[in-house]
Amino acid sequence: MSSADWDASRYHRVARPHAAWGANVLDRLDLRGDEAVLDAGCGSGRVTLQLVERLPRGTVIAADHSESMLAEARNTLAGYADRVTFIQVDLLDIHDKLDRQVQVIFSTAVFHWIQDHPRLFSALRRVLESRGKLVAQFGGGTNLQRFMRAADAVAGREPFAQTLGGKDLWRYYTTPEETEGRLIAAGFTQANGWLEPSPQTFEDHARMADFCRGVVLSSHVAALPDPLRQDFTDQVVDEIARREGALTLDYVRLNVDASG
Ligand SMILES: C[S@@+](CC[C@H](N)C(=O)[O-])C[C@H]1O[C@@H](n2cnc3c(N)ncnc32)[C@H](O)[C@@H]1O
User: Is the C-beta atom of 41 inside 6 A of ligand 1?
Assistant: First the structure.
């Protein structure tokens, strides 16, 4: 997905599960309050805000490659300009852009958007101080498998197939074991990964469609011409309701704690 493709204000409005997941992952960080922390893929800054509030004497580098997400994050974090620095960067190249190392790398809901995990972990390792920690959560295992099958079925229908056919719109889901192995291969001294099912159910069609358009279907929607976007989203939500008998997203999160 290119850096311009997120509808950042919609994401910020609908990403409530992400804020709750972020708070849980932050609890694992056990911060002193004076660390330098990289938020790898800060998005609209909602979780970054929770992070900076736990760092009264510390600093945050908020990194993302999306211009629209960074603009939203600057707005969200306007009250913390003295302690937050923003950088627009592909995380695969973060080691070329950061002129300092950090004590902690934090990341939520990002790594499954990136295909090359060996290169990603190697880049992150290079910006982490020795004995620093990486605490992250992203989609893994069977994350959204049932939902994406429904999306795939709708993407195969006309007129959507003309645009979506043959496009690589999938996120990159791995297992805890693969991820642990890749982290160690990238130079981390210790790595622990585990899966956590976290299904999300919506009250009605409109709320689920709003969420899907801003988050889990954002790549599909960005690829489609504007007049087809809402129709595609509505058909996917109808397809999920038909297949599952519920307005549920089968989210599975992969947690990682690693040491540099
Ligand atoms: C679902 S959002 C998560 C944002 C935030 N961490 C949260 O939990 O709300 C995923 C973010 O990852 C960013 N992202 C994806 N791939 C990236 C890459 N290769 N480099 C930098 N940012 C990336 C996207 O631009 C987007 O802002």
Answer: yes
- Within 8 A by CB and 6+ apart from 138, the residues are 107, 108, 109, 110, 111, 112, 253, 254, 256
- The Cα 194–Cα 125 span in angstroms is 20
Q: Which residues contact 198 (CB under 8 A, 6 or more apart)?
A: 17, 21, 251, 252, 253
- Which phi-psi region, left, alpha or beta, contains residue 26 (left: φ > 0; alpha: ψ -120 to 50)? alpha
For residue 31, the tally of other CB atoms under 10 A from its CB is: 18
Confirm or reject: Cβ of 139 under 6 Å from ligand 1. no
User: 218 in a domain, yes or no?
Assistant: yes
Residue 164 in domain: yes
pLDDT, tens digit (0-9, with 9 covering 90-100), for 52-103 = 999 999 999 999 999 999 999 999 999 999 999 999 999 999 999 998 999 9
Q: Is the CB of 128 under 6 A from ligand 1?
A: no
> For residue 3, is it within any domain?
no
Query: For the chain, what is the domain count?
Result: 1
Q: How many angstroms is it from 242 CA to the middle of ligand 1?
A: 31
Ranges of the chain whose pLDDT falls below 50? 1-4
Distance 158 CA to ligand 1 centre (A): 30
Q: Does the C-beta of 114 come closer than 6 Å to ligand 1?
A: yes
The answer to the question of residue 226 being in a domain is yes
User: Residue 58 belongs to a domain with what CATH number?
Assistant: 3.40.50.150
Q: By residue range, what is the domain housing residue 117?
A: 8-259
